[in-house]
Write a structure and sequence with these properties.
By secondary structure, the protein is of the alpha+beta class. 30% of the residues lie in helices and 25% in strands. It has 8 helices and 15 strands. Helix 6 packs antiparallel against helix 8.
């Protein structure tokens, strides 16, 4: 999965079956559930309508790709009462919607140990389905969500041989990379690539750090590097002139960059 952790109300999706009542009370997730394997055509309004039949809903969100706007096949529902969430997990899990059998389970709070555990996989056999992908990656840890990309340009939804797998913990993702990267899977003829998926926020931070290096190219992009100018001066032959930097602009630009890199924490 576009990348970056999908959350609602501070919760991260959990795809495996229900935790015990005590576990849910301890992690505070008894009202929040994750719904996986939703049909591509299902809308957020239809998702809300289905789960509101169980009880009053505080929030409902169908997760979509930030670029294409297409459904990623899962969503979150937060109930007002924990009893309704429990009922939804028990009654709607394994419900068949169109050609899909949905999976309903509890969500759980985010923590540093479970961040950055999303993998990008390419070179998969075109015959692979979600079950094959899960079977391949399941031995290395608890899978939270998985997704196979299809080609939408042809209108046939043909597999692209590319997918995403999100684990419960980063250490599990690291183990999968170590064991599966550059190996040939069952039904495959070529080695697959397994690596961490790109994090958009990390990419932006890297770009800002590169600007902070204050190379001539970076200064040029910031529009703060310019040669000296004198009114009425007609340029003559070049004599290795050293560019001057407008320090006030540099200070202002750098302050903006540092503010993005290290935002102030609210008290």
């Amino acid at each position: 999965m576009t990348t970056m952790d999908s959350q609602i109300n501070g919760m991260i999706c959990q795809q495996k079956p229900n935790p015990t009542m005590q576990q849910c009370e301890e992690d505070g997730s008894r009202t929040n559930i994750i719904v996986n394997y939703l049909p591509q055509s299902l809308t957020q309004e239809e998702l809300r309508s289905l789960f509101s039949s169980i009880g009053e809903i505080e929030s409902c969100k169908l997760i979509r790709d930030k670029v294409s706007g297409q459904s990623l096949g899962y969503g979150f529902v937060n109930y007002m009462k924990s009893a309704d969430a429990d009922k939804a997990v028990k009654t709607l899990n394994a419900l068949k919607l169109q050609d899909k059998m949905i999976k309903v389970s509890y969500a759980r709070p985010s923590s540093p140990a479970i961040k950055d555990a999303n993998l990008y996989i390419s070179g998969l056999p075109k015959s692979y389905g979600p079950e094959d992908l899960e079977k391949l990656f399941h031995p290395f840890g608890r899978i939270i969500t998985l997704r196979l990309l299809t080609d939408q340009t042809t209108g046939k939804g043909l597999p692209r041989g590319v997918g995403f797998v999100r684990y419960d913990r980063r250490t599990e993702a690291e183990n999968a990379i170590a064991k599966l990267h550059n190996t040939i899977p069952v039904k495959g003829t070529e080695p697959i690539t397994v690596k961490f998926a790109n994090n958009p926020s990390q990419n932006q931070q890297k770009m800002l750090l590169q600007q902070c290096a204050l190379t001539p190219a970076a200064l040029s992009q910031l529009n703060i590097l310019s040669p000296p100018r004198t009114r009425g001066y007609s340029p003559g032959p070049m004599r290795h002139c050293t560019p001057t930097i407008r320090l006030n602009q540099l200070s202002s630009k750098m302050s903006g960059i540092m503010a993005k890199l290290f935002p102030k924490q609210s008290m």
